[in-house]
Amino acid sequence: MGERGDLVLAEARHLKWEALDGLERALMVLCGVCLLGFTSSTLLDVVARLIGHPLLWPQEVTSTFFIYGVFIGASVATRRNDHLYLSAITEAMHGRARFFFELFNRLVILGVGICLAIFGAQNFLTGFGSFRMPSMLPIAYLYAPIPVCGALISLFSVEQIVNGLRHGFGETEIRAEKAMQEAA
Description:
Blueprint lengths: L20 H30 L6 H23 L7 H5 L3 H32 L13 H4 L1 H23 L3 H13 L1
Helix pairs in contact: 1-2, 2-6, 4-6
């Protein structure tokens, strides 16, 4: 946790907009809800089978929580640089090489986010022609988090690209900038 009890670490604050901190917190809570729902529905399914009264609907609920949790988690992990980001390579670099690869990584992630948003939306729209059993709900509700995830990944990538171009990507650039300001 940061100094104010927020989710953003102090060394990553220069890449984040405070306006998106609430969104990150809400996404983290949703991830927890999905994990709790996934675990609870799986437990219910197992217990029902053990007592000899299997249910069909917990499997559908479990898969829904799992899918939503994966895509919500992927989007929030993008903001936290915990997912889709090759930090081990860039952290060993310095100067222009680091700057180039940090920017390149985030541009690739932005491209992935845009593809998820576009093709996820297309997949969502085609999902109204197929139905889940036993609920007979359109399978589109399972596809709904894909374009949302893509939009969030794109947003968080743009946030980091803009802030990285303004302030530098690595912590070393931030320390050098602060040292120059203190010297002046």
